Amino acid sequence: MHEMGIVLHLAKTLEETAAEQNIALISRVTLQVGEVSGIMTDLFCDCWDYFSARHPVLKGSKLVIEPIKAVTFCDSCKREYPTVKHGRRCPYCGSYETWLITGNECIIKEIEVGAESGANGDDRK
Amino acid sequence: MRIIELKATVTASNDRDAAALRGELKSKGTLLINLMASPGAGKTTLLERTIRDLSGEFKIGVMEADVDSDVDALRAERAGAKAIQVHTGGMCHMDAGMTRRGLEDMGWEGTDIIFLENVGNLICPAEFDTGAGKKVMLLSTPEGDDKPLKYPLMFRESDVLIISKTDVAPYFDFDFDKCVERARKLNPNITVFRLSAKTGEGFEEWENWLRNAAAEWKGAKE
Fold this sequence. Notes:
The complex is a heterodimer.
Chain A: H1 2-20, E1 23-34, H2 41-52, E2 62-68, E3 71-74, E4 80-82, H3 83-86, E5 98-102, E6 106-116
Parallel strand pairs in A: 1-2
Antiparallel strand pairs in A: 1-6, 3-4, 3-5
Helix pairs in contact in A: 1-2
Chain B: E1 3-9, H1 12-27, E2 31-36, H2 43-54, E3 60-66, H3 71-79, E4 82-87, H4 96-106, E5 113-117, H5 124-127, E6 134-140, H6 147-150, H7 152-157, E7 160-164, H8 176-186, E8 191-194, H9 203-219
Parallel strand pairs in B: 2-5, 2-6, 3-4, 3-5, 6-7, 7-8
Helix pairs in contact in B: 2-3
């Protein structure tokens, strides 16, 4: 259900972008998804298939997911370590004074235009 | 083939809607409070008593968001608030668009404080901006003092943490200090209240906070 909500917002953001940029069809969408963003990639893709078929601008559009590694920084010893393996506790000094640098993002990196829209042709002389 | 680099968050459209809604509410001096907690933490019970205590001072509205049923809206209405039940259609959280539609259906102009009782869930509601001016979360003592460790985003996002059902805390070995320490590690500015709807503990402090928050919100409306 969580993935469904995110895909709904993604579809809406893409529709607005398409309208602004005179795009009739988006053929590919590349997302960057952090390892600890809480998004299950399989479920997300299922939801994408469901919603993209129902938005004309996204019909047949391909979803590409680029994972982003989760990295945590330790404030005590000033070192970085992989979050998924060690969690909140620094593997070098045992401190819990740590914070996530990357890994919880969900960013639309880029879209590929499948067809331009002719409706606002006067913009493109 | 044209490729457009966006570098936008997935929820960019929701973030825009939420900011617009917050601005409109602010211009009219209406404080929307996003109330979040697990199912059964005591959100509706907290609201019932708060509405009874404050309905002489403020015009209060309540938007109950649930997957199904309207029992919560009826309870809020009986306590003396203007209430509306919103069904999320299976969604696990409220977003800005749903919140706006609910507010418009209820008719929010002229209200001082509106509580949005979000879907019972400690995960998704934290991720979606509803347009609320303040975020308040409830954690009941039977849920355990380890919840800040398991659901960090909810604690990071909230302005206020209400620890509810303090009257039964001894039965659940709930460690208040540990819980508050864990929450403050994530969010040093979080305001904490200990509260029991059974004994009335903490209601005075919580309601004073509400009075100040509502006055501050109105004061900042220009």
